[in-house]
Amino acid sequence: MRTHGILSVVMALVLVVMCSGSVSYADISPAPCSMSEEDMDAALVTRGYPQAVLDAMNPKAKESIYYNSGLTFNAACIIVYDEETGRSQDYAIQAGQPIPYGQIPASDLGLAWVISNDGEDYLNVQVSYEWHSTPVFRFQDPIALSWDGSEFAMVDDTFEKTDYYDDYRIDSVTGETALSSENIHSRETGYAQGSDDGVVWYADLKGGLSIANLYGEASVTLEKLTLASGTSQMYGVYAHSALPMGAGIVLQGSGAFTVTGN
User: Fold this and answer.
1) What is the number of alpha carbons within 13 Å of residue 10 lying toward its C-beta?
2) Cα separation of 175 and 177, whole Å?
3) Domain segments of the chain as ranges
4) Most C-beta atoms within 10 A of its C-beta, which of 112, 142, 151, 171?
5) CB within 8 A of 254, min separation 6: which ones?
6) Which residues contact 18 (CB under 8 A, 6 or more apart)?
7) pLDDT tens digits, 101-131
8) Which residues lie across from 146 on neighbouring strands?
């Protein structure tokens, strides 16, 4: 596997995106899901997804995997950030291997990418981020994924990302305040930067005083370019801007996944 330079590619792409112009977005009404999160988890566990991985994903990211019935679990990387200590920790999880960690701790910001087998020739990568503590500064945070470009290629027109928010709204008739969930702030099928080795896009964080939760998901399909079996590595970075042109938090992690030859 060609690992040299992959992580540097991720960081370079993030820096390019952070210094570039912003993209446009618009709020969209929420699309309700008829299945409970508990039932969705139970169904995904039967397809090999560990409960620890599902617990680290926001419901909309899990929903995307659930409705693609051909996907089965391969590997995942989970990164958690604690605002009080300023520290992050990443956890790599592979199919068929015991999870050597205790309970993954609660966090102020969680990031996870889940690699799924999509038939024999493709992999699906689902990314989930969730702010459990609403950040003061909310701009456009770049997220990057990088893989070995000699082993995998991003399939055209398969990338898509959506940013959500929950907020409190006052009923104009009753005056009561209620939580409105799964509102879409941004939905796009384009990305900010891409190369043979990776892709970068923005997480658009909704501003305003009434925001209760911020979260989002993205997915992309990779085609295998190798007939060999073994393991490969995927890297990820989330850079949160504390100022319009600066990064206040940078989360990064990596995880191995299985490559099966044909």
Assistant:
1) 22
2) 7
3) 6-259
4) 112
5) 7, 77, 90, 92, 233, 234, 235, 236
6) 142, 239, 241, 245, 247
7) 666 777 899 999 999 999 989 999 999 999 9
8) 198, 235
Residues listed for the chain: 262
Report the distance separating Cα 143 and Cα 30, nearest Å. 23
Model pLDDT, residue 25: 46
Using left for φ > 0, alpha for ψ between -120 and 50, and beta otherwise, residue 124 falls in beta
Burial profile 15-31: b = 16 or more Cβ within 10 angstroms, e = fewer:
eebbeeeeeebeeeeee
Give the per-residue pLDDT at 8: 52
3-state secondary structure (DSSP) of residue 59: helix
* Most distant pair of Cα atoms in the chain: their distance: 64
* The residue type at 165: Y
- 191 within 8 A of 201, measured Cβ to Cβ: yes
The pLDDT of residue 23: 43
Q: What's the pTM?
A: 0.85
Structure tokens belonging to residue 203: 């997480």
Averaged pLDDT of the chain: 86
Residue with tokens 């199919």: 95
